[in-house]
């Protein structure tokens, strides 16, 4: 998903306290994604999980190519 699309989603779904210019901009979104930070600057760290059937639904694993815009 592109930073622009993420920004659009943030504007449409986030609580108003999170739809702020310093959070909802391309540079911040790219930084958050690149450095595994929470996009809303909450005290959380994102971790990359291996896509396997032990942790994810078989349908997602078997059809990963269909969801490539949403999973890394």
Please describe what this structure looks like.
The protein has 72 residues and is mostly helical. The protein has a domain at 1-42. The chain contains 3 helices and no strands. The longest helix is centred in the first third of the chain and has 11 residues, at 3-13. The protein is elongated, with a radius of gyration of 14 Å.
Feature tags:
72 residues, elongated, N-acetylglucosaminyltransferase, glycosyltransferase activity, mainly alpha, transferase, glycosyltransferase
Rg on CA atoms, Å: 14 Å
Low-confidence stretches: none
Helix content: 25-40%
- Give the overall average pLDDT: 88
Instruction: Output the number of helix runs.
Output: 3
What is the percentage of strand-forming residues? under 5%
Q: Which structural class matches the secondary elements? A: mainly alpha
Give a quick account of the main beta sheet: strands, pairing sense, barrel closure: none
> Termini distance?
10 Å
What is the β-strand count?
0
Order of helices and strands: HHH
Tell me, briefly, the overall form. elongated
In short:
By secondary structure, this protein is mainly alpha-helical.
How is the secondary structure organized here?
Elements: H1 3-13, H2 26-34, H3 58-62
Helix pairs in contact: 1-2
């Amino acid at each position: 998903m592109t930073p622009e699309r993420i920004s659009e989603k943030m504007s449409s779904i986030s609580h108003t306290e999170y739809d702020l210019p310093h959070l909802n901009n391309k540079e911040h979104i790219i930084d958050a994604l690149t450095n595994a930070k929470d996009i809303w600057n909450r005290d959380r760290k994102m971790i990359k999980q291996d896509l396997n059937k032990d942790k994810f639904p078989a349908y997602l694993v078997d059809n990963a190519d269909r969801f490539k815009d949403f999973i890394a």
